[in-house]
Amino acid sequence: MAEGSAVLVIDDNIDDREVYRRMLARAPGANYVVYEAENGDEGIALNAQKRPDCVLLDYSLPGRDGVGVLEEILKLDPSANVIMLTGQGSETIAVEVMKGGARDYLTKDTLSPETLHRCIQSAIMHGDLAAKLEQKQQSLEIFTRAMAHDLKEPLRTIKSFSRLLQASPSLAHDDHDLLGYVLSAADHMEELIVKVSGFSKLEASGDLEAKPVSLSAIVDQVERNLREQISSRGAEIERGPLPQVMGDGTLLVQMLQNIISNAIKYCEDEVPRVRISAQGEGMLCRIAVSDNGPGIARDHRELIFQPFKRLVGRGIEGTGLGLAICRRIAQLHGGAIWCEDADGGGGTTFIMELPLALSEADKAPADAASPRQEEQRADRIGRVAEVLLVEDSPADVQLLKIKLMKREKVTFNLHLASNGLEAMRLLQERATGGHDPLIDLILLDINMPIMDGFEVLEALSRDARLKTIPAFILSTSSDEDDMERARRLGARAYMIKPPTRQQLELALRDVQTLDLQPCGDALILYGEQTRHQANATI
Ligand code: ATP
Ligand code: MG
Fold it and tell me: Would you list the DSSP string of 73-88?
């Protein structure tokens, strides 16, 4: 690596520059190419032009201090390897310089050819590693993004159309079963996509923002999420007093959900009995989840925390990622997770250690709509709503028409736009035109060419006439970040494809300008009375 490394020396003192030049010429086994600059501006320009492997920067330059020059160099070239040189050593300067982004810091008095050479080489190596890490992080980001959006899209289409076909009365019995296989493979693949992207994201995430969270609220949520599994197996879940811990509620639900779901899923021969308890151990809370399942052999108790390691065959569904995710979640909380024999033999106990929170009242559940609000909604008589679907996939447009409008009999006037720009044009035309009824609701896909769903939300919020129109995201992504981003940008609800009557009902709960009213076995979506009546045919 020393062969032909280029070094830029930025120092106003000609004697010092000469000393570095000589030292570098004497460096063992190295062949440095040296550039020189006598002030900050010249150095910044030369760095941009030559892109040397390393910059030796004098801390006290006339006119402009070394830290300012360092900042400027890194602004233009964030990967620059800069070593700061000062006349005398000082802790404060060292901290300031390293915080400013220098790779290292050397005092001129103690400099020798060897130290200088070693320091330059390690700065270059540090830079190479940082660049590789950056590259890896970028690939991981692309991969995670592809997982969350692009892979789910075609899968959702396969599932939705298979379901439609399966419900068709003219389908032969055998074909019905064959479609069942397609659907269960697609379910498995979807689960894999969700888990792998969740795992990659956790791998990439650094610190989490921990807040006091109530463990009993977490377990309540888990029980709600697992309602179907619990009731279908007749599982008994027992719990002792549970304290508050410091952590991220969503991640803790994910962790306990996998542990409790495993406890039920792998207990095949008996009625599953799961016991959840917790006790304080100094600053830590030790949570134990015990089951009466088959137990886990001592040799396998670490193995199961590795990604994709399973002890059972495909007869029991699963991806083998659950416990790997749990371990990462525990680590992100500064805690740990492992498993032991359940008390009294047979079965397993999973132990999780998390930081204990100083006690704080549980948060009240989100307010439900008040009876008065419900009344106001029911009283409103409007016209059939104008709904704009912004969607680039013809298959998804079809799906909304067949599933939501035809099969589930939800009636509204549908308008289409195949990307954000087209949608904005249509909305603006209607807002200024004065002839066509205004759009009452926008259903917005995220991933679209030209202008995506997030950009549309941004554009809507900037337009005084359009920002009052409720916009719901309708996406394949169930990614928490996407949901949060959509919420921040003003989306009133987040629906996951395929759109269902139930999802729409839920999404409309907090929207005062729209009302879903039964009409025979159909539902009609009404919009608020506006300046024009729509000629809707129902
Ligand atoms: P996923 O959670 O991703 O849907 P999974 O349940 O197979 O799939 P993990 O939760 O990581 O993956 O579990 C790994 C393996 O550990 C399981 O396949 C199972 O063999 C074993 N295991 C986990 N929990 C228990 C348990 N409570 N009792 C017996 N075996 C268990
Ligand atoms: Mg599992």
Answer: HHHH-TT--EEEEESS
